[in-house]
Write a structure and sequence with these properties.
Layout: H1 3-29, E1 37-43, H2 51-64, E2 66-67, E3 93-100, H3 104-117, E4 121-125, H4 149-153, E5 160-164, H5 177-195, E6 201-203, H6 211-219, E7 224-226, E8 244-245, H7 252-259, H8 266-302
Parallel strand pairs: 1-3, 1-8, 2-3, 3-4, 4-5, 6-7
Helix pairs in contact: 1-7, 2-3, 2-7, 5-6
The structure holds zinc ion (ZN).
Length: 303
């Protein structure tokens, strides 16, 4: 991400946290908020050189929140009492860790940290790309290989839940209904056959979804779906569940703010941008049309 933009986002998130979230945390401390919040983190890969940063982030997670299992029927399951530095959480904040795309680098570099700190995670797998480097995320300097079936089966089932990220990682709103159902149903069946466990969670490729995709997910047997909008949720509040994109390279302030849910203003900013863009297009479109009309009128009168 470009650095000035990143700094602006951090700055807005600080203001947002001070204005809107710190009072909520204070209420949580005072025991006045009954329903705990949950922030779901979305990672992709964790490279060899990022192990230490990833461990620092996971240790911070244990300090400020409770790790949450997403496959426990939506209940906030506290695992922190088993973890070093665990114990009573500082607030009513739960944090869940997810990885999209099932990169080998997660098994090689993140798994050991998660196991040592006893932090559960969900890996969303794009089934047809297993064992390959897919086209949608090829990068010049990082390892983008996706796990094979054997590597998937070797993951500790008590810590890592396997979930679906479709078969071919398409732009789902653009595919026809039969393909949509196949992407969702077939990926669930394939992953269940590989792991011997029910697959109940689905993350939308590119975070793209609409009400049609939500209906299809229910019909295909999923309990929850996941997007890439950084909206913290109450886990029992239904689907889709928002997630905030994080990277091991996120700075200490940036990661802390994401962990606390302070990036939840971003969907509103995107909405505002879309509305402004649409209105600007409509306005300029009208002006352009008026100019064209003027030209035509002039041309007609010239003729
Ligand atoms: Zn993906």
């Amino acid at each position: 991400m470009n650095e000035p933009l990143r700094s602006i986002k951090v700055l807005i998130s600080v203001v947002y946290w001070v204005l809107f979230l710190s009072w909520r945390d204070a209420l949580g401390w005072a025991g006045l908020l009954r329903r705990p919040r949950c922030v779901v983190l979305l990672y992709h890969g964790v490279q060899r050189g990022e192990r230490e940063q990833f461990e620092w982030q996971m240790r911070l997670l244990l300090k400020v929140a409770r790790p949450v299992r997403l496959d426990s029927g939506g209940r906030l399951e506290n695992t922190s009492k088993h973890a070093p530095g665990g114990g009573r959480p500082l607030s009513g904040l739960g944090v869940a860790v997810t990885f999209d795309d099932g990169f080998v680098s997660v098994a090689e570099n993140a798994l050991e940290v998660l196991a040592r700190l006893n932090i559960p995670a969900v890996i969303f797998m794009p089934v047809a790309s297993m064992g390959k480097t897919p086209g949608w995320c090829a990068g010049p300097d990082s390892d983008k290989r996706i796990m094979t079936e054997e590597q998937l089966k070797a993951l500790p089932a008590d810590l890592i839940s396997i979930a679906s990220h479709s078969i071919t990682h398409p732009h789902l709103p653009e595919v026809d209904s039969d393909t949509l159902i196949w992407e969702m149903t077939h990926s669930r069946e394939r992953l269940e056959a590989m792991t011997g466990k029910p697959v109940r969670l689905f993350s939308y490729p590119f975070g793209e979804w609409s009400s049609r995709e939500e209906r299809a997910a229910r019909e295909a047997g999923y309990e929850k779906t996941f997007t890439i909008e950084p909206v913290p949720s109450l886990l029992d509040a239904g689907s889709p569940v928002g997630r905030v994109c994080v990277e091991p390279g996120d700075g200490p302030i940036e990661f802390r703010l994401k962990l606390l849910g302070a990036y939840r203003w971003m969907p509103w900013a995107s909405l505002l941008k879309r509305v402004l863009k649409k209105n600007a297009a409509a306005l300029f479109g009208r002006q352009e049309q008026a100019l064209l009309d003027g030209k035509v009128t002039r041309t007609a009168s010239d003729g």
